[in-house]
User: What shape does this take?
Amino acid sequence: QSALTQPPSVSGAPGQTVTISCTGSSSNIGAGYDVHWYQQGPGTAPKLLIYGNNKRPSGVPDRISGSRSGTSASLAITGLQADDEADYYCQSYDDSLNYIFGTGTKVSVL
Amino acid sequence: EVQLVESGGGLVTPGGSLRLSCVASRFTFSLYSMNWVRQAPGKGLEWVSGITSSGEHIYFSDAMKGRITISRDDAKNSLYLQMNDLRADDTAVYYCARTDCTTSSCYLDYWGQGTLVTVSS
Assistant: This one.
């Protein structure tokens, strides 16, 4: 059950766009399983940010978007704001029908 | 809004056991599959175990297989995780999380606040 690969950190100035990649393999994302994304602020529980590759739960702003292609996925945050500073995790399934998470990415707002 | 409240964490010596509980409210607990996810200090998220709505199917991660039991009591709106033979690397915050699914995979739409398990002598 190897983790999905994410960059350890990304950063941007307020108002800019940052993109987080999530790379898997043919046994998880590449097998056609949807990708989901979570945001985790300091000392708090994860919160669902994107489900089904590109769908936003109620309350998540449309400047947050997701996509999936082949064996990878990405999360984009446009109009970066101070409260976007958090850790972000992608998640999919593997062929054992187990949840598999990404390694996590820390987003910093400069 | 959906609420999940974990309890049962604490300090335990290596080789010891602990039972975590998660009480759910504000949704029909019996209709949902549920999961435990853990996060070691300063580390990422790791799925531990899941149980379907009927309790018929149970899934475990390789890391804890053989040492844990997951169960649920729908009458009490509660999810449990019995952990045995605990090791130092089991030290983590353990989260209870509810499952929802797309047509091709499932995700965790609501999470509890977590309960800290510390394994140390």
